[in-house]
Amino acid sequence: MRYLDKADSPQDLKRFTVRQLSGLATEMRDFLVQSVAKTGGHLGSNLGVVELAIALHYCMDSPVDKLIWDVGHQCYPHKILTGRREQFDTLRQFGGMSGFIKSSESPHDVFDVGHSSTSLSVAHGIAVSRDLKGENYRVAAVIGDGALTSGLALEGLNNLGQSKSNVLVVLNDNQMSISENVGAMSKYLNNMRTAPSYINVKNDVRRLLERFPKGGQITQNVLGKTRTRLKYTLLQGVLFEELGFKYYGPIDGHNLGHLVDVLGRLQDVKGPVLLHVMTQKGKGYAPAERQAMKFHGIEPFDPRTGETLNKEKKTTYTDVFSMKMVDLGRHNEDIATVTAAMPSGTGLTEFKKHYPKRFFDVGIAESHAVTFAAAMAKNGLRPIVAIYSTFLQRAYDQLLHDICIQNLPVVFALDRSGIVAADGETHQGIFDLSYLAHMPNMTVLAPRNAVELEAMMDFAVEHSGPVAIRYAKDEVCKAYKDKFSPIEYGEWEVLEFNEANKIAILAVGSMVGKAAKVREKMIEAGYNVSLINPRFVSPILPQSVKSLCGYEHILVMEENVISGGFGQHIISELSAAKINEPKVHIFGVDGVFPPQGTRDEIFAYLKLDVQSMYEKIVGIING
Q: Are residues 505 and 531 in contact, defined by beta-carbon separation less than 8 angstroms?
């Protein structure tokens, strides 16, 4: 029987020898490669923490002890060891196992995660709760070196280090986030990686200092100065020590025996402890070792070669944005781009290749990215911030205070807006229309196809204030691909006009494709239907509102929550203009966090697929 078949819970591991644990690690890696090859998912980071997950569960007593994983990109080994190995064929599938830590799945999943850099704050909160309630269990948080570029992680580090709480922080250092790490913290950790381990040196220094005679002011002064000099000369973890942690490392994160030994010794150390563990992303699978970025998150692939399975290449909104950015950079030297650790995912890799001096990756630091761009705009540049919709939520205050109040010309390219597939609830981009459209001075656009996205980019870099362009992670819409009218500020595009003037569909961005199919079914059923592409979600001009007069029914279709979305803004504007007709019916996300699945599955789940919307519309009209 395989070791893997005997490891369905953390308690099972207690019966293994360290040598057997190494065999288990080998089997787990093979299982991960074979499983993710079928479903897709985050592979490289999980291959890198196999030994770490085994050692932590071997030395701790989960779920009594609390093991907190940052992000969740590295949680697959943890899920295998906590009884979910048989569910891996449903990984990231509709109704299946989440690719992130999800407390509803298992008592071993302490706190839901999806966005980076939360683990230190969570660990601090759990430790304080434990101490105030007089309970007795261990708390450990695993955080990656990439996550330490985040302000939230640094805030957690600062407060946890001064708390005196018994917490173990494991710094999983693989020199990567999704792309290569950037910034001073990355440089600092790199210097530490190249230095020899100093745990023994630190102990020798402390024993040496203890030999100094005690008493007397001069002796105390000499002792203090000697401690400081030796500390800064010999102790490579001085930053963490100064923040209040007892620092150990760096150690090899793939040496199971050493990991188990060190973790066992650290159990009795009081106060905040930071263990610096070096791992390799993609460890044990050659294609993932060679191509770390590709295998961070990958579609189904051939496990023998690492090549993704043949799929028809489809042009996505991200592809169009990528090529347009290169063109804009060629014609305007004031254009600079900013990303928060996502150059590949947002399509900025080509811009970086052509114009490296005007490309800025600030790491996992969305708030900084926005204020950084604001300052560039204030000083005459035209920054374009490419970011996922879900991550821009982390910079709401900076958008409002630093961009919109000053009316600065910063362009936000919001990738993954609307329904996002396999990443589930935490990554849905269904809130941006609501949190952006109510900001004064912010112009919000939604392109329906490739040509319109390019035209909107041209408009945005010439506009005198902030502009957000939101688009889905999807193939560009092909409906009405040969129809286009120039972008004029605030103007809507009428795609189909019916003189009967009874029913109009207002479809936002990528919803135009579904709206066109709904309209076809309605025309076949004998209804007179116009189709309008608003283009500008905000502002909504008075003449646009007046153009709705005479319709009996307005059907708004948007990939956004209904609350605060485009449809509700239409209702508000009609009311302000004292227009009593038409009746507005909104088709959007209503009161739920959409689950993981394919986009089609999620649309069907939300009743936003073509057939469901058509049936509801007929019921409304005939009701």
A: yes
Q: Report yes or no: 335 and 461 within 8 Å, Cβ to Cβ.
A: yes
pTM for this model (two decimals): 0.89
For residue 296, name the pLDDT band (cuts at 50, 70, 90): confident
Tokens of 13: 């591991």
Residue entry with tokens 């979305």: 565
Question: Strand, helix or coil at 496?
Answer: strand
Q: Mind telling me the catalytic residues? A: 281, 366, 394
CB–CB of 172/49 below 8 Å? Answer: yes
3-state secondary structure 434-447: HHHHCCCCCEEECC
Nearest-angstrom CA–CA distance, 398 and 374 = 9
CA–CA gap between residue 260 and residue 18 (Å, rounded): 8
Sheet of 359-361, strands arranged across: 359-361, 335-339, 382-388, 411-415, 467-470, 443-445, 536-538
The identity of residue 558, as a single letter, is E
Q: Which residues make beta-bridge pairs with 505? A: 531, 555
Q: Tokens 């959007």 sit at which residue?
A: 588
User: At 502, which amino acid appears?
Assistant: K
| CA–CA dist 583, 555 (Å, integer) | 9
Taking the C-alpha atoms of residue 447 and residue 455, their distance in angstroms, rounded to an integer, is 9
- Cα gap 523→402, rounded to integer Å: 48
The answer to whether 78 and 54 have CB atoms below 8 angstroms apart is no
Per DSSP bridges, beta strands 167-173 and 503-507 are unpaired
Fill in the DSSP letter of residue 564.
T
End-to-end CA distance of the chain: 64
The residue with tokens 């009316």 is 407
Tokens at residue 416, please? 């993954």
What distance in Å separates the CA atoms of residue 319 and residue 324, rounded to the nearest whole number? 9
Which DSSP string do the residues of 135-202 spell out, in sequence order?
Answer: ----EEEEEETGGGGSHHHHHHHHHHHTS---EEEEEEE-SBSSSB--SHHHHHHHHHHHSPP-HHHH
Residue 140 has what pLDDT?
98
Nearest Cα to Cα of residue 123 among 68, 62, 81, 76: 68
Cis status, amide bond into 287, omega within 30 of 0? no
8 A C-beta contact, residue 340 and residue 362: yes
Which tokens is 319 given? 């592809």
User: Tokens standing for 516?
Assistant: 């066109």
Mean pLDDT across 595-607: 97
> What's the burial of 323, exposed, middle or buried (CB within 10 Å: 0-12/13-18/19+)?
middle
pLDDT of 207 above 80: no
C-alpha distances (whole Å) from 118 to each of 13, 162, 346, 364, 557 are 28, 18, 23, 12, 34
pLDDT in tens, 493-533: 999 998 887 999 999 999 999 999 999 999 999 999 999 99
> How far is 513 from 508, CA to CA, in rounded Å?
10
Helix 18-39 with 50-59: angle, nearest 10 deg: 130
Contacts of range 87-90, beta carbons closer than 8 Å, 24 or more positions apart: 88/31, 88/35, 88/39, 89/35, 89/38, 89/39, 90/39
φ, ψ at 565 (rounded to 5°): -85, -170
Between the alpha carbon of residue 379 and those of residues 372, 373, 375, 382, 505, the distances in Å are 11, 10, 6, 9, 42
Q: Map tokens 């239907």 to a residue.
A: 529
